[in-house]
Design goal:
single chain; alpha/beta; five-stranded antiparallel beta sheet; 34 helices; 21 strands; carbohydrate metabolism; Glyco_hydro/deAcase_b/a-brl; Glyco_hydro_38_N_sf
C-alpha cells in the first residue's frame, strides 16, 4: 500500500500531506542524500539454561539437534555468518557475512550461548560489527538489547535501570564500544522507559509505526507553532528519524518553570524544547516488515528489492531511509534459505538501485531529526492492547480462541509479590555486605560475563563494606544470584503464548524457585508457601495441572537440584569414566568448550557449574558387583557455596544402581565406613552390601534416574552397547547368509521381505560405522586411511545395489568432520603429502555422497572459499611457468568444483 492509498482516520493527516509539509524543512546538519536502506534483525532466544546447572539440557522437541538454540543456530545464526551467493549451477560464487550489512541486536543470553557453542560464528558477528564501523564512519550495525527481554513498562524503576545497564555492559564487553541504540523487548515502551534509557545515555530506539500517537515539524522562526498530525493508526512516515522530548521531566527544570507558566507554551517554544531531554526514534516500515514475516517476499531478492522500492517517496526530498525489521530467525529458520536472498540483496540488488545499505546510527549521524513525535502511553508491537499480553487475558497469543489466558494476571501478581519480598531480603542482608547493594547488582553483569575466581574476588573487594569472610562471600554471591533470577523470572516469553505450563512459563517459574531457595539460604525466610498460594489463582488450560500451583509442584519442584544429586551424578558416572571417549566425562561438550569456565587442576573435575575435588576414591569389583566409595568436596562456581560429602555406589549389573550420600563427618568415620562397606562386598552378596549401606547412610537412596539427563543417556547407551553389538553381529550374519537371496529379489524386481532388507541396512550401517571409527583413528596414516576409504566405497556400492538407506546420523557427523580435517591438513600442513592427501580427500568426498546419508560440506566449503583468494589464486597466477605447480593448482581447483565452489574463471585463465 503506498502512502497515498493509506486510510486516513478522522482528524488525522495522510503521509503524503505530511511529506508535502516537510519539503520546506532544511537542516545544515543533514548530510544524507538519496535513498538509504536498513534491514534490522532482532535475534533472540529465551534463556533456556537449567538455573542449577547453568547449561541447557537436551530438548527432544528440537531433534535431531540437542536443543532449540543448537537447532536454530545451524538453521539461522551460522548460515547468516556464511551466507552463500550461488550461480545457476548451485556453485558458490561468494560468501557474505550478513551481519556486516544488516542492522541487528542479539540478546545477551543468546550471545553468551554462542560464545560457548560456536566461537567461529561468535567472532564473525563481532568482526561484522567492526567492519560496519569502518564502512559507516564509526557507526556499527549492532545495537544493544535490554538484558533478558523483560517488558520494560511492567518493570519497576530499579529493574528498568539494571536491564539497561546490564545490556550496555554486556554489549561493551563484546563489541568494544558503547551502544548508540537499544532494542526493547517486544518494542514495549512507555515514557518512564524512555527516561531510563536517556539517563543511561541511549541515543535512539526502534519502534513499530503503530506506537506513534502524533508528530509535527520542529518549531521554527517561520512556523513557531507547527501543527500536530495525528498518526495513531500507523500512519507515521517511517522514512525519517523523529525526536521524542521527555516533557514529563519539565517539572524537574526549575529554571524553565520560573519562566514558563504554561506547559503548552513549552511545547511551542523552540528554546524550551532544546533544553528538554530527548531520545530519537526510528519507526520501521510496518507493511514491508509484516510481509517479510508472513509472506514470500524474502524468498526472492529481486522481489524483496522491489518491495523495498515501493516505499521510496518520490517527493524530491534530500534523503530518506527505508527501514524494515523482523525476527532475525526469519532468515534461515522460519524461512529456509532466505539468508541467501538478503545476502544477494545487500551486495547486488540494493546497490544496483543506487541505494546505500546503512544502519540507524549511521543515518542519524547524517540526518538529524527535524520532526518531533509523541508516542502512545504504553504499547508493544505484538499486542493490540498495550502490554496486556504480559498481564491480562487479552486474547493475543491465544490458541485460536480455544484456550484462555486468565492465568496471566495471577502469574504477574505472584511474581511481583515475590520480587518485592526479595527486595526486602536483598536490602536487609545486602546492606551488611555491600556499600551499595543496588550498585553491586547493577555491576554484577561483570561477574556474569566472567566467573573466574580472580574476577569475582576483585568484584567483591570493590563492593564489600568490610573484608568478607568465606561464609559472607557465599552469602554475597547468593544475594546477587537471587536478584539475577528475580530478573530472569520476568522474561517476556513466559506470558507470550497460550498456556502457563508451556516450557516458557515453566522456565520462568524455575527461575523464581531458585530465587526463593537462595533467599531461604541467606535469610532463612520461607516464601514458597505464599508464592504457591498466589500461583494457585492462575488457572491452567490443562486439566492435569488445574492451576499454576500444580504446574510449580509437578514441573518445577521436581527439577530442583541439591548437592547430594550432584554427588550422586559424579559417583555413578565414575563407574563408567574409563569407557568415555569425551574429554570430560561429566560435562556435555559440543563445538567448543565453555571458554569462560575456570581452569581445573589434575585433581579436579567439573559437573556442569560445580567443581568436584576428589579427596579420596576407591573402587572394587566382586563378580557382577561393583562398589565405589569416595569423599568429595563440591564447590558451586556460581555462588562459591560448598559441601564435603561421602558417597557409596553399588552397581548390581545392568540398569540397577544403589547410591547413598551423606555429609563428611571426619577422617576416622570415613575410614570405618569404607572398611565396613568393602568387607560386606567380600561376601559377594548384593543384599549384604545394601544392608551395610542402609545401616551407614539411612534409607535415602539415589539411582540412575537421579542422574542429570545428559549423563543418564550416555550411561544408558553404554549399558546397551553390548546388547546392540550382539544384535549387529546377528544381523550381519543373517545378511551374509542371505546375500544371494536378497540380490535375486532385487534382480527380479520383487518386493524384498522386510526382515531381510532391515538386516541388510543394519549390517551395512554397522560395517560403515566400524570403518569410520577406524578412519578417525588412522586419519594421519596415509596408507591406513586409503584402505578405510576403499572399504567405504565397497559399502556404498553394496548399499546402492541393495537399495539400502543407512540410518547413521553419527556417521554423517563423523564424515563431515573427517573431510574438514583432511581439507585443513591439505591447505595448511606444509609437511603433508599433497598428492596422496588430495586424492584421499577427493575419494572421501565422493563416497560421502554415494553413501546417501545427507552429508553437508558447508564448513569444508567455507574453509576452501576462505583460502581460495588468499592462497590458491595467488599460487595459480604466480607459478604458470612451472608445470608441476600448475598441475597442483588444477587439482586444487578441481577440488573446489567437488565442493561446489565456482572456480571457472580461474580455470579458464590457466588453460
Amino acid at each position: 500500500m503506498t502512502s497515498a492509498e493509506m486510510p486516513v482516520t478522522p482528524g488525522a493527516i495522510s503521509t503524503a500531506q505530511i511529506t508535502a509539509k516537510d519539503t520546506h524543512q532544511s537542516d545544515p546538519r543533514n548530510l544524507a542524500t538519496g535513498v538509504y536502506v536498513t534491514v534490522h534483525g532482532h535475534f533472540y532466544q529465551p534463556p533456556r539454561e537449567n538455573p542449577y546447572l547453568d547449561s541447557i539440557e537436551r530438548q527432544p522437541s528440537a531433534a535431531p539437534f540437542h536443543d532449540w538454540n543448537e537447532r536454530i543456530h545451524w538453521e539461522c545464526y551460522r548460515p547468516n555468518a556464511f551466507a552463500r551467493i550461488l550461480n545457476d549451477q548451485g556453485e558458490v560464487t561468494g560468501i557474505v557475512n550478513n551481519y556486516e550489512y544488516m542492522s541487528f541486536n542479539i540478546g545477551p543470553t543468546l550471545m553468551s550461548w554462542l560464545e560457548r557453542y560456536d566461537l567461529e560464528v561468535y567472532q564473525r558477528i563481532l568482526e561484522a560489527d567492526a567492519k560496519s564501523c569502518q564502512r559507516l564512519q564509526g557507526h556499527g550495525n549492532a545495537i544493544a538489547q535490554v538484558y533478558n527481554h523483560i517488558i520494560m513498562p511492567l518493570a519497576n524503576e530499579r529493574d528498568k535501570r539494571t536491564q539497561i545497564r546490564w545490556g550496555k555492559e554486556d554489549f561493551r564487553s563484546r563489541f568494544g564500544r558503547d551502544p548508540e541504540g537499544m532494542w526493547l523487548a517486544e518494542t514495549a515502551v512507555d515514557y518512564a522507559t524512555l527516561e531510563a534509557l536517556v539517563a543511561e545515555g541511549i541515543r535512539f530506539i526502534v519502534l513499530a509505526p503503530s506506537q506513534a500517537q502524533r508528530c509535527r515539524p520542529f518549531p521554527s522562526e517561520n512556523d513557531p507553532q507547527p501543527e500536530w498530525y495525528e498518526v495513531g493508526g500507523s500512519q507515521i512516515d517511517p522514512t525519517r528519524p523523529y525526536r521524542c522530548y521527555l516533557k514529563s521531566r519539565l517539572s524537574a527544570k526549575s529554571s524553565l518553570l520560573s519562566s514558563i507558566k504554561d506547559k503548552s507554551i513549552a511545547e511551542t517554544n523552540p528554546q524550551s524544547l532544546q533544553e528538554l531531554p530527548y531520545i530519537d526514534i526510528f519507526f520501521y516500515d510496518g507493511p514491508i516488515s509484516r510481509d517479510m514475516g508472513f509472506s514470500d517476499v524474502v524468498y526472492n531478492s529481486h522481489h524483496f528489492a522491489g518491495r523495498i522500492g515501493s516505499a521510496v517517496r518520490g517527493d524530491h526530498r534530500q534523503s530518506q531511509l527505508i527501514s524494515v525489521g523482523t525476527d532475525g530467525e526469519t532468515f534461515g529458520h522460519h524461512k529456509k534459505g532466505t539468508e541467501k536472498t538478503i545476502a544477494y540483496a545487500f551486495i547486488k540488488e540494493f546497490p544496483s538501485q543506487g541505494w546505500t545499505v546503512t544502519n540507524f546510527a549511521h543515518y542519524l549521524s547524517l540526518s538529524s531529526p527535524t520532526w518531533e513525535v509523541e508516542i502512545k502511553p504504553v504499547t508493544a508491537w505484538s499486542c493490540a492492547h498495550g502490554v496486556d499480553r504480559w498481564q491480562e487475558d487479552c486474547g493475543c497469543g491465544g490458541e485460536g480462541g480455544i484456550w484462555h489466558q486468565k492465568w496471566r494476571r495471577p502469574l504477574r501478581n505472584a511474581l511481583n509479590w515475590l520480587r518485592d519480598q526479595l527486595v526486602e531480603v536483598f536490602e536487609e542482608y545486602g546492606n551488611q555486605l555491600f556499600r551499595d547493594p543496588w550498585q553491586a547488582r547493577d555491576e554484577y553483569i561483570q561477574v556474569i560475563r566472567d566467573r573466574s575466581p580472580a574476577n569475582i574476588s576483585r568484584f567483591l573487594s570493590r563492593h564489600q563494606t568490610h573484608k568478607l569472610t568465606a561464609a559472607e562471600q557465599v552469602d554475597a554471591l547468593r544475594l546477587l544470584e537471587m536478584q539475577r533470577h528475580a530478573l530472569f523470572m520476568f522474561t517476556s516469553c513466559g506470558w507470550f503464548f497460550e498456556e502457563l505450563s508451556r516450557p516458557e512459563g515453566t522456565q520462568i517459574l524455575r527461575y523464581a524457585a531458585r530465587a526463593l531457595e537462595l533467599a531461604g539460604d541467606v535469610a532463612g525466610v520461607q516464601l514458597e508457601k505464599g508464592f504457591l498460594k498466589r500461583l494457585g489463582l492462575a488457572p491452567s488450560n490443562v486439566d492435569s495441572f488445574k492451576h499454576g500451583g500444580e504446574v510449580y509442584r509437578q514441573l518445577v519442584q521436581t527439577a530442583q537440584i541439591s548437592f547430594k544429586q550432584v554427588a550422586a551424578h559424579y559417583a555413578i558416572s565414575s563407574l563408567f569414566n574409563n569407557q568415555n571417549s569425551q574429554p570430560n566425562p561429566v560435562v556435555p561438550t559440543r563445538l567448543n568448550a565453555a571458554s569462560q569456565q575456570p581452569k581445573l587442576n589434575t585433581h579436579q573435575k567439573r559437573v556442569y557449574c560445580y567443581t568436584v575435588n576428589e579427596i579420596d576414591y576407591q573402587l572394587q569389583r566382586m563378580g557382577s558387583l561393583t562398589l565405589a566409595v569416595g569423599n568429595l568436596k563440591l564447590v558451586s562456581e556460581i555462588t562459591w557455596e560448598s559441601e564435603n560429602l561421602v558417597f557409596a555406589v553399588l552397581h548390581l549389573g545392568g540398569w540397577d544402581f544403589h547410591c547413598c550420600i551423606q555429609l563428611f563427618t571426619g577422617r576416622r568415620d570415613y575410614s570405618q565406613l569404607k572398611e565396613k562397606l568393602f568387607a560386606s562386598l567380600q561376601q559377594a552378596s548384593a543384599a549384604q552390601t545394601i544392608l551395610a549401606m542402609t545401616q551407614i547412610f539411612g534409607n535415602e537412596t539415589l539411582s540412575l534416574q537421579n542422574l542429570f539427563a545428559e549423563e543418564r543417556h550416555r550411561i544408558m547407551r553404554l549399558l546397551s552397547q553390548e546388547t546392540l553389538t550382539r544384535l549387529d553381529q546377528l544381523y550381519t550374519q543373517a545378511y551374509r547368509d542371505n546375500y544371494g537371496v536378497l540380490m535375486a529379489f532385487h534382480r527380479d524386481e520383487l518386493a524384498v521381505p522386510q526382515e531381510l532388507q532391515v538386516a541388510a541396512e543394519i549390517a551395512l550401517g554397522y560395517r560403515c560405522m566400524t570403518t569410520l571409527r577406524s578412519l578417525e583413528q588412522d586419519i594421519t596414516e596415509p596408507q591406513l586411511s586409503w584402505n578405510h576409504v576403499v572399504e567405504l566405497e565397497a559399502i556404498a556400492t553394496e548399499a546402492k545395489h541393495l537399495r539400502c538407506r543407512l540410518n547413521i546420523p553419527e556417521g554423517k557427523q563423523m564424515l563431515e568432520q573427517l573431510i574438514l580435517r583432511l581439507l585443513w591438513k591439505l591447505l595448511h600442513d606444509a609437511n603433508g603429502s599433497f598428492a596422496t592427501d588430495i586424492q584421499c580427500l577427493e575419494r572421501l568426498i565422493n563416497v560421502s555422497y554415494e553413501l546417501n546419508i545427507g552429508i553437508s560440506l558447508h564448513q569444508s566449503q567455507e574453509l576452501y572459499f576462505s583460502c581460495l583468494q588468499s592462497q590458491i589464486v595467488p599460487l595459480c597466477l604466480t607459478t604458470q611457468a612451472n608445470k608441476e605447480d600448475i598441475h597442483q593448482c588444477l587439482q586444487l581447483l578441481k577440488l573446489g568444483q567437488k565442493l561446489a565452489v565456482d572456480v571457472s574463471a580461474i580455470l579458464s585463465q590457466l588453460k
